[in-house]
Design brief:
3-stranded antiparallel β-sheet, mainly beta, 3 strands
């Protein structure tokens, strides 16, 4: 669609809730338009996601 995208990945350990529940397996991933910083997509694989 003509976007210049950038992606960011974080481990679920970045979530205080996951650490509190001691279930830290998984990841968070965001896809963002590099020019406008608009969020294009987001996925969560982890506890209570």
């Amino acid at each position: 669609m003509g976007y210049t995208v950038k992606t960011t990945k974080l481990p679920v350990t970045a979530s205080p809730r996951a650490r509190q529940l001691k279930q830290t397996e998984g990841l968070l991933k965001a896809v963002v338009d590099a020019e406008t910083e608009q969020l294009l997509g987001f996925t969560m694989f982890g506890v209570e996601s």
